[in-house]
Design a protein that fits this description.
This protein has 252 residues and is α/β, with parallel strands linked by helices. The chain has a single domain, classed as 3-Layer(aba) Sandwich (Rossmann fold). It contains nine helices and seven strands; from the N terminus they run H-H-E-H-H-E-H-E-H-E-H-E-H-E-H-E. It is globular.
Length: 252
């Protein structure tokens, strides 16, 4: 299971074994498709209400700010949504709301994470469930040949997830190559790092709203375990929208 520790939540839903990376399709209904991918590909037969609401919003082209405790399964929101978008390009446009971007995006989800260790942890988790080059990282901890291979996987359309640090997005070449991929989702992990109110503040996060614009204003999801109301407001301001919020509480 890819880094989402949760095991309980909504009433159980049927598990449909499927592997979207093998070219199989999921049901036309986005809700059924999301549940099928979560169960059959990521080993999540049950989804919590906040997770499912966030997934549906993303595939409909809306932004999401997910404020959920560690261990609740925030990462599943973008992981399942990205798999759905990648495997159901012909269905996404019809599923999008009138307020969404109005077209299906075929490229990978770009995942911005502040630490290489966090990137590698999520990458390893995804590669336990997905085959080949479905998830790649482009960071300073990788050799030149590994970075080259990661870009090739993204540009071939094999990579569903591309992990980077915020500082890498300050490079013009990196932005140009990402923009050419028709990015499906822009994921900001540890989104509280955008806030100057917090001790985890990272200057590289301040430009993420601008970066999002350069990537075509793709739907964005901000993930954080804790954020006070002022920090949430700043996250929304920095990332340029994020009108939809989904929250969760630790299950007892």
């Amino acid at each position: 299971m890819s880094g989402t520790e949760q095991r309980s939540g909504e009433a159980p839903t049927p598990a449909f074994p499927t592997d979207p990376t093998a070219g199989e399709t999921v049901p036309d209904d986005p809700g059924a498709g999301l549940r099928q991918l979560a169960a059959g590909t990521l080993g999540l037969p049950q989804l919590r209400a906040g997770q499912f609401a966030g997934m549906r919003a993303l595939v409909a082209g809306r932004d999401v700010l997910a404020v959920m405790p560690t261990g609740y399964g925030k990462s599943a929101i973008y992981q399942v949504a990205a798999l759905y978008l990648h495997g159901n390009q012909h269905q996404v446009k019809a599923a999008q709301s009138p307020d969404g971007p109005g077209r299906a995006r075929r490229g990978p989800a770009v995942v911005v994470s502040p630490l290489i260790a966090l990137q590698e942890d999520q990458l390893d988790g995804l590669l336990e469930d997905l085959a080949g080059d479905a998830a790649v990282a482009i960071n300073s901890g990788r050799s030149d040949s590994e970075v080259h291979d990661a870009w090739e996987a993204a540009e071939r359309g094999d990579a569903v997830f591309v992990f980077l640090a915020p500082e890498q997005l300050a490079r013009t070449e990196t932005l140009e190559r990402l923009a050419a991929l028709d990015v499906s989702l822009f994921v900001v992990d540890e989104a509280h790092c955008v806030s100057s109110w917090g001790h985890d503040f990272r200057p590289g996060y301040l430009r993420l709203g601008e970066v999002r614009g350069q990537l075509g204003n793709t739907p964005v999801v901000g993930l954080t375990a804790t954020a006070s109301p002022p920090v949430r407001d700043e996250i929304q301001q920095r990332l340029k929208r994020l009108p939809a919020r989904t929250q969760g509480q630790k299950m007892r």
